[in-house]
Design goal:
This protein is α/β, with parallel strands linked by helices and 216 residues long. The protein folds into two domains: 3-129, Rossmann fold (3-Layer(aba) Sandwich); 141-211, Orthogonal Bundle (Arc Repressor Mutant, subunit A). It is built from eleven helices and six strands. It has helices at 12-22, 37-47, 63-71, 88-96, 109-120, 131-141, 148-152, 157-167, 172-179, 183-196, 202-211; strands at 3-8, 28-34, 51-55, 78-83, 101-104, 125-126. α8 (157-167) crosses α11 (202-211).
Length: 216
């Protein structure tokens, strides 16, 4: 199945580079481009992409506000934000607004393709270079922190274990090994965690784990 992508980036050369790189993947199709956040929000409504590659610093409407507007709609696409080391606060805000992951602009081209695939699959992508600082900040200041403990109370003990391992960055295969269960069982637990916490995807469940204080 082909993954449809909208690339939102105000720098024309960077945007063209992203489009070119994504075009090398046989299972990815760029169906639209936007040069500012407002145009990105409008394009999502008309093109209905599966993934939006969103630069955080854009004119008219920045990436955080655009992400919030996009993810507020039913059936919203996954938003993968492009960032730099200096944008940790904006990344934190974008994740709180519903982004499915973040990727450093300094990342390898192969990581861009893999990140899009992961976000389309509902797994998200958290760049390991700055994930600790960003998620730690969400734990301290996340807007959902007050209600998160009640949400987590619906999880079984095993589902909480799975969520902790998800928050540590473990894949389904690694979780299966850690807990001595099959990958099919792990996928079921992950799906239950996402559903019970009313999270959009795996990344948003991880965000909730940090906001709630479950992860320190």
């Amino acid at each position: 199945m082909t993954i449809t992508v909208l690339v939102a980036e105000d720098e024309a050369l960077v945007r063209a580079g992203c489009v070119m790189l994504l075009g090398t993947a046989a299972d990815i199709e760029v169906i639209g481009e936007a040069g500012d956040g407002a145009a990105a929000v409008a394009a999502v409504k008309t093109l209905a992409p599966q993934v939006v590659l969103m630069d955080l610093r854009m004119p008219l409407l920045d990436g955080v506000a655009a992400t919030r507007a996009i993810t507020a709609e039913p059936g919203a696409p996954a938003v993968l934000v492009l960032t730099t080391f200096r944008d940790e606060t904006m990344v934190q805000e974008a994740l709180a607004a519903g982004a499915s992951g973040f990727l450093l602009k300094q990342a390898a081209p192969a990581d861009l393709i893999q990140a899009v695939r992961r976000c389309a699959a509902g797994d998200g992508w958290l760049d390991p270079s700055i994930v600790g600082g960003v998620l730690g900040a969400l734990r301290r200041t996340g807007p959902r922190a007050a209600t998160a403990p009640a949400t987590l109370s619906t999880l079984t003990a095993r589902e909480r274990e799975v969520l902790v391992l998800m928050a540590l960055g473990h894949s389904n295969a690694e979780i299966s090994t850690d807990l001595f269960i099959s990958e099919a069982t792990t996928r079921t637990h992950v799906a239950h965690v996402i559903a019970k916490t009313a999270s959009r995807d795996r990344t948003q469940a991880v965000v909730l784990a940090y906001q709630s204080g479950l992860m320190t």
